Amino acid sequence: MRMWQRTVCRLFVLAVALAPASATQAQGTIAYFRPGTPFSFGPVPGFESRSVDLNYDGLDDFIFESSMSSTVLPLRGHRILMLPEPPPDIGGFVQPLTAGTVIFSELGQGNLVWFDGSGPVAGATLSACAWPFGCVGPWLGQTAYAGIELQFNGLTHYGWLRISHFEFSNGGALIDWAYETRPGVPILAGAVPEPSTWALLVGGGVLMVWFRRKRHERRG
Fold first, then answer.
1. Which residues 6+ apart lie within 8 Å of 28 measured at CB?
2. Distance (Å, rounded) from C-alpha 3 to C-alpha 97?
3. Is residue 181 a contact partner of residue 157, using CB atoms and an 8 Å limit?
4. CA-to-CA distance for 124 and 220, rounded, in angstroms?
5. Are residues 70 and 102 in the same domain?
6. Which of 71, 126, 160, 192 is the most exposed, having the fewest neighbouring CB atoms within 10 Å of its CB?
7. Residues 201 and 95 in one domain
8. Model confidence over 33-81: pLDDT tens digits?
9. Rounded CA gap, 186 and 159, in Å?
């Protein structure tokens, strides 16, 4: 048997062995959404305030607003991870997270808090601008992840928003987002549904059939 044939066979056997384990680890439990065009918000007229429906159930989940500051306002009991400003200031900045950060309830402890949109705070801030001083904020000119906590049917789900922010103004775009469909289960920032091992299994099987046909054709 040729080397490439042995390789395909090994991949096929590996896929068969991994398929049951893949099922027990609940593959495909992450709901992921990426609109064809990034969800823009910002100082452009008509885009100062925009709402987003994360699971497309017809109900708005967050509002992105931009005027002198750009903010994210959670709705319907949802929450976003925020670093509060020290007194006497109120409010705070949405905490930018790097890919792979574990998002779960305990993140809202210590310096960080889960903000639900209630109280005197207008929203969790991405950036703030004041003429002639310019703009401040941890999101200026960068793309990062925001940790979110969603309430669906009275159950808590963890997720992330990937936001790209302008460098010199209050605006940006929501690129994509995801959440764990299992309530109470943490999610990694940037995590998307993993391709099932069954794809490897099917692919290996197709390759084996193709190689077998080619061998038969050569034999006449």
1. 193, 194, 196
2. 45
3. yes
4. 71
5. yes
6. 192
7. no
8. 999 888 888 765 555 678 999 999 999 999 998 776 788 999 999 999 9
9. 8
